């Protein structure tokens, strides 16, 4: 069967980068300790260097899952109120999670940057059970609408150096 994946072009790169820049929340998929899947909604942002991240509580099931198995997937891009939801662009990242704990020096720097885009997080960012999770994307799958599927590298998405 012929692959339906299109060659990555500048329009796909631009769209993926726009989705990453505009997203304020995402769906996070993890594997629980018993091997079952879990998908949850998380806050989404980017570090000062542009790496995708989330601020999560140690009380959450997805946090415990990532501590045991850091392999995950992050889906960004939400449909608008109008139109068919399947025609709206979305980007899935296959990633590995790394924690930046509350008591660490990088946490304070990340917190100041994060609060610029997520000011309401000020209510809980200081709680000791919260950590940042950085998502190191291995590959991106962009669905830009019907018949518009692309596979992107981290550099295609502007996630490297």
Structural notes for this entry:
This protein has 161 residues and is of the alpha+beta class. The protein has a single domain (5-145), classed as Roll (Pnp Oxidase, Chain A). Helices cover 21% and strands 37% of the residues. The protein is globular. The termini are far apart.
Q: Tell me the series of helices and strands, N- to C-terminal.
A: EHEEEEHEEHEE
**Sheet with the most strands?**
9 strands, mixed
The CATH class is Mainly Beta
Helix content: 10-25%
Classify the fold: give the CATH topology. Answer: Pnp Oxidase, Chain A
How much β-strand is present in the residues?
35-45%
SS class: alpha+beta
CATH homologous superfamily assignment: Electron Transport, Fmn-binding Protein, Chain A
Indicate the mean pLDDT: 93
* Record field, number of beta strands: 9
Question: In one word, what is the shape?
Answer: globular
Main attributes of the structure:
Pnp Oxidase, Chain A, alpha+beta, nine-stranded mixed sheet, 37% strand, single chain, 161 residues, globular
Quickly describe the structure:
With 161 residues, the protein is of the alpha+beta class.
Topology summary:
Layout: E1 5-6, H1 10-22, E2 25-31, E3 37-43, E4 45-46, E5 52-57, H2 61-68, E6 71-76, E7 90-100, H3 105-117, E8 130-143, E9 149-152
Parallel strand pairs: 1-9
Antiparallel strand pairs: 2-3, 2-6, 4-5, 5-8, 6-7, 7-8, 8-9
